[in-house]
Specification:
The protein is 34% helix and 25% strand. Strand 6, helix 6 and strand 7 form a beta-alpha-beta unit. Helix 3 runs parallel beside helix 5. The structure holds adenosine-5'-triphosphate. Adenosine-5'-triphosphate (ATP) binds next to strand 2 and helix 1.
């Protein structure tokens, strides 16, 4: 196992009142690209949210690269970037450039270094004509590209992406998927309903009614998932 990328769940359950969103999940993961699949309400987002402390385990233990996401929240935020399916929930600054730069605050970088990193993101992710645009004036897809840029600019070691291409057109979906899956050096946890994307990962987890039904080679896991959801 690669301890630098180790994600471990030991008998983890998450309850929301009477409802159990995750039920006694135990798994060790050290792959670079990890897909999370399953039907609506099966617990995928809850699993993803445990990785960055947005949800906490009702029982059991979660460790991300050796860090306890709740008790060591500050340390974790430096290490893990989260991309939501709804970008509105993560855009925090008025303009595109300011929002991307915001993620670099408190990192001890020079103004020049910040500006360079921000322009690189703006160019790479097709926001060149929107550098000084008000973030709220962007289209849904452009906001998604902005949210993605604001996370990637700080180069976290783990990216957790929950349906990151849901709002994107075909060309941007292809580009962002290729970036996340093939170009980016970081570890990726990708929650997706797009089974072709899941197939390109190194391992896949299939959640079913809060339980981890299968974890392993993506093609085998997906084939079984499809058989049970004809
Ligand atoms: N904050 C919450 N409060 C109450 N119930 C919740 C909360 N978050 C999730 N749940 C419930 O937990 C279960 C799992 O939800 P989760 O969002 O993890 O599913 P999902 O697999 O990501 O679904 P989808 O594919 O629809 O996004 C669902 O029954 C959901 O209603």
């Amino acid at each position: 196992m690669n301890s630098e990328r180790l994600i471990s769940f030991r008998q983890v359950s998450v309850d929301f009142g009477e409802r159990t969103a995750l039920d006694n999940v135990s798994v060790l993961l050290d792959q670079k690209r990890i897909a999370v699949i399953g039907s609506n309400g099966s617990g995928k987002s809850t699993f993803a949210r445990l990785l960055n402390g947005l949800a906490s385990a009702s029982r059991g233990e979660v460790r991300v690269h050796g860090i306890d996401p709740i008790r060591q929240a500050r340390l974790l935020r430096r290490r893990v970037g989260f991309i939501f399916s709804n970008p509105d929930s993560q855009i925090v600054m008025p303009t595109v450039a300011e929002d991307i730069a915001f993620s670099l605050r408190g990192r001890g970088l020079s103004r020049t270094e910040v500006d360079e990193r921000v322009s690189r993101m703006i160019q790479t992710h097709g926001l060149s004509h929107h550098e000084n645009s008000a973030a709220h004036s962007l289209s849904g897809g452009q906001k998604q590209l902005l949210a993605l840029s604001s996370v990637l600019v700080s180069e976290p070691q783990l990216i957790v992406a929950d349906e990151p291409t849901a709002l994107l057109d075909a060309a941007n979906t292809r580009r962002i998927s290729n970036h996340l899956l093939d170009e980016m050096p970081q570890q990726l946890v990708l929650v997706t309903h797009d089974l072709r994307l899941a197939e390109r990962c190194d391992t896949a987890l299939w959640f079913d009614q809060g339980r981890l039904r299968r974890c392993g080679e993506p093609r085998a896991v997906i084939a079984e998932y499809e058989r049970s959801h004809p």
